[in-house]
Amino acid sequence: MKLIWKLLRKHISVFELAVFFVANLIGMAVILAGVQIYSDFSPMLTGDKPIVGSDYMVISRPIERVGNDTPKITAEEIEALRNEEFVENLGVFASSQYRVDGGIDFKGRKLSTMMFFESVPDEFIDVDSDDWTFEEGDDIIPIIIPRNYLNLYNFGFSQTQGLPSITEDMIKRVELTIRLSGNGYTDYYKGYVVGFSDRLNTILVPMSFMTWANDYYSADKSDGATRLILKVQNPSAPEIEEYLQEYGYVAEDKPAESGKALFLLRVFVAVIVGIGAVFSLLSIIILTLSIYLLLQKNVSKLENLVLVGYKPSYVAMPYNLMTMILNISIYLISIVIVSYLQGYYMEHIGQLLGVTSEASPATSIVAGLVLTAVITLFNFFIIHRKIAEISRKRC
User: Fold this and answer.
1) CA-based nearest residue to 60, from 199, 225, 233, 238
2) Which of 127, 306, 95 is nearest to 209 (CA)?
3) Do the Cβ atoms of 47 and 262 come closer than 8 Å?
4) Contact, 339 vs 29, CB < 8 A?
5) Does an H or E element contain 57, and which?
6) How far apart are CA 78 and CA 92, in angstroms?
7) What DSSP state is assigned to residue 164?
8) CA–CA separation, 123 vs 90, rounded Å?
9) Does pLDDT of 200 surpass 80?
């Protein structure tokens, strides 16, 4: 083979091989980087402990006409929804079925208003407070309000009325006078805001209190639920939207955080891999043309080698070896580049999120091996096809 190589290497263009090497290196590195980025970030969005976390969506029946009858969701419908694959957990809203009046003593002025309470199971609440408890006989009701209520006051109402802004700590220290009435009973309780919710846009009280209060203050027991809260991995999934439309549910307008993040990640990776694929395709075209040109320049030598008894596969061996060395070199350099890039962005992500990660470039290593094998086999095919064509013509 050493003699054959001496005969054939004369017309090899170093410039053409260099162009192929650089183009394929860029393409390979970009493709493997995209695959590795997706492999590293996808578990952070959809794994057991996602950085964005699962999303929660609140659904209900649409109100189609004016009246006192709020559309209900039956127990059978709740159970059917609970059994859907996209539902990780499901909770039922419980609403106050009694009259609620709230008052506050503000600078010597007593202000009061009608209110309402709702409850959901504790696992759906995004506020962690040791005061979120109630037992029958307690005279204190813990309350969670939406954080946007406070923002509306501070950045809207207080600005137009010349009132002072208030902080969350100030709100938590305020004692509310809660008057509950119904079923022939009227009682007064103290109410304290124990936290602010970014997830639920309603005034929440513990489910233990709601169950007891509805039983005690309400003579009419309501059947069915009016609203449900669902824990899902990706609220923007097509199957969820199709299910809601099919069964007549409407969802509150809440950003699907993990769904949007995962969608953007997929688009980002698709763009990266697409760019890498273009570079790789161009490099393969360049190499194919170079091989054809090189073989064409050496056609007389190749014909003579075949005539003196060399097999086409043996004649093709120097070209196969050359392309294999190039492709393996490109693969190894690409892995080094991707590993360095991975260490860089994982370090910064760890600092940003306050977590440590032991990410491995295994995904890019495997993907690179597969891609290198495919490209190399394609190169072998082109070389053998051309040499076989020359051999047939000479024979």
Assistant:
1) 225
2) 95
3) no
4) no
5) strand 55-60
6) 9
7) P
8) 10
9) yes
Output 133 or 236, whichever has higher pLDDT. 133
Contact 224, 74 (CB under 8 A): yes
Tokens of 299: 């056609």
State residue 336's pLDDT score.
92
User: Per-residue pLDDT averaged across 352-357, rounded?
Assistant: 56
Two structure tokens written together for 186: 């009227």
Name the token pair of 35: 């695959």
Which of 187-191, 257-261, 317-321 has the lowest average pLDDT?
Answer: 257-261
- Residue 46's Cβ-side half-sphere holds a number of Cα atoms within 13 Å equal to 18
Distances (CA, A) of 15 to 11, 21, 162: 12, 10, 76
- Provide the CA 155 distance to its chain's centre, in angstroms: 32
Write phi, then psi, for 302 (nearest 5 degrees). Answer: -65, -40
Q: Which amino acid belongs to residue 108?
A: G
Q: Would strands 89-92 and 227-232 be described as parallel, antiparallel, or unpaired?
A: antiparallel
Q: Are 8 and 296 in contact (CB under 8 A)?
A: no
Q: What element of type H or E holds 179? A: strand 176-182
- pLDDT greater at residue 109 or residue 331: 331
Among the listed residues 163, 159, 160, 179, the one whose alpha carbon sits nearest the alpha carbon of residue 107? 163
Amino acid letter for position 46: T
What distance in Å separates the CA atoms of residue 142 and residue 125, rounded to the nearest whole number? 13
